[in-house]
Amino acid sequence: MSNYQIASSNVLQSPLELDDDQILENVYKTHFHCVEKCDVQCLHSVASNVIHHSIAITDCLINKGSQQSDQFHEGSSFGCVQQLTAKLKRIACQMLCTGRGDKYAHHTTMLILEQLKAYSWDAKALIVQAAFALEFGKLSHIPQSQSQSQSQGEVVDQLLEVEKSLAELNGLPSLRQKSEELVILNGLVKKVMQMIGCIREWKELISKEYEIKEVPILSQTLHQIPVIVYWTIFTFVTCTAQINYFTTTHHTNRDNRYELPKHFDHRLDGILKSFQENLEDCKKQIEAIEDYTKRKNIIYGGNKDIVRVLRALIISTHQYSDSRQIVYCGLNGQPVKIEDLKKKHVLLFISGLENIQDEIKLLKGIYEKLKEEPREVEGYRKEDFKILWIPIVDEWNERNKKDLEKMLEDTKIGWYVVKDFNFKTGMRLIREVFKYKDKSIIPLLSPQGQVENDDTKLLLSVWGIDGFPFKASDYTRLTQQWNWFWNEITKLNPRMKDFIEDDYYIFIFGGTSSKWIEEFETALNTLKRQIETTVPIELYRLGRDDSRVVPRFWIAIDSLLANRKHTKGGGGEGVMDFSTREMKRLLFLKQDPKGWVILSKGSNVKLLGQGEVMYRTVKEFEKWPRKLDDQEVSFDVAFKEYYERIKLKDGPPKCEHSEITYPSDILARIPCPNVDCGRSMEVTSVNYKCCHGLEQPNVAPRSNLC
């Protein structure tokens, strides 16, 4: 659009009669691709220096009637302005020669925008700011009072004379009679400098190159910035015209001066306030993104620890100095420091507040079991495993707060709880890192803050404390370590496949004592009838239908063990995989004089038991301290607890023996198959012996275990 077109289409328009959308449309007609470049930082520094200096001078003139002895800010660079000098003077001249009235100011503003069409939005405003500074800076030549003009030397006297002459030529002495008008001008200049500050701030924000989808409010500022730039330039044009009025001494008639409409200030305030609010929202959104990125880097980065990761997840910036504001002990409600979890493995219980009774019951059982013997398994200490509950709700209103407190009071949980968790960035990270989708999960974090198991809930539900130390590999190990057993059993009894698929509790047993077998089977059938409505039980006695399958079964297990001893991971110095260990346990258990029993839930073997202790556990069902009616614990957990209680009550475990048939065993270091012991068995000639540290002087010199 040509200058002539601009003039003809806008000369009669008043911007105060146009809404923001109409102004936006007009301004966009003058804007093209940003091909012209200038050092906006330098330009802004120089122009602001002049304007702020001049504001200070006029403020002093208004308040004290004299100029303060101020100087330009040291270190300002003026070389960057030289290439724009001609353009600045031309724009300053246009503004100075603008006729009175907002229509003429609008006309000049549009002409200036046309001239600056190839510059960026912030550059347009800053170039006009610099042009305005050329005129406004003349106020620095206001004559000094006699008390402040005392010179020291001939050169200084001459400079003062020049300054006085320049002030006379620019009509500045007349300003002393226009203090009221100066107040209005200074107020307007200060306001437009706020607008310049907002434009600079906006430029810094968009320079970070965030996408609109990341910072949605940026789209509003992109819509606002042309309007803000327009009103900034319009205000500079208006202020320059005011300066022209001030410095024209013959304008003594108040009716001849130009006054802005009263609602101009209100319009400017509204536009500035809206833009400032959007900028503030932009900063908050960008700060949130940067905070999220920083925290995400902590979680996924190396050289970290569990405390740093948990802080990144649950502690907001304003809470960072004291984690006790949100982390509490569930048992007594006392605040705790998150540093208590340093060097610990942490089971994170992430859930809502509804339908989590089963998970709480499950974790209560795990919490209690972590305090029991043995204290160390597979090199992991149980005391190093902690539970942290992070309840997540849409809003922590009074109802949700009361529900949580009531739940804590009713359940008496002993682990840590995060209360009033409303940290949005933390919630986003939890959903991303742990794939949380409003359904409870229990991931496991290592002392280094690494995720060792995405969700231990299935492992804990199926295996309980036997799944310790709860790593993802433990589920695979526990699930597959008995595949060899089920392969042999289903060959002997194909119906077992159905019971496994239906997740029945299965008792598989055998032995050399026919009396014990009869008594155990009778007791087991009685138990089955008692609880069949709630606990599905199936039993299978090895060799019941065909006694010939018994030796075949044990020969198959012996062969499997022999094959594993000659494969990697099956045996040897310090090496024994879980399947090999369980084979050895079963073969040793076979030597029980009464019998042996395996209890499983589906394909998950829960217990290998000694004949007499298993019989008493089944027979004394009514004496179990943990009842099944209130669903406090599962059947297998209650069974194992009573089994261990009887086993401990009977005193030190007796030694049993097993004949060694494989010469390769002689050179192997074999741990005691008893899961409660685990010590390496002593090699004595061709015999293995382990007494769990107890003195057993009367043990026969054969392969022994306790």
UniProtKB/TrEMBL annotation:
Coiled-coil zones: none
Domain Sieve element occlusion C-terminal: 551-692
Positions of the Sieve element occlusion N-terminal domain: 19-298
Biological process terms in GO annotation: phloem development
Residues in the signal sequence: none
Descriptive protein name: Protein SIEVE ELEMENT OCCLUSION B-like isoform X1
Protein's organism: Arachis duranensis
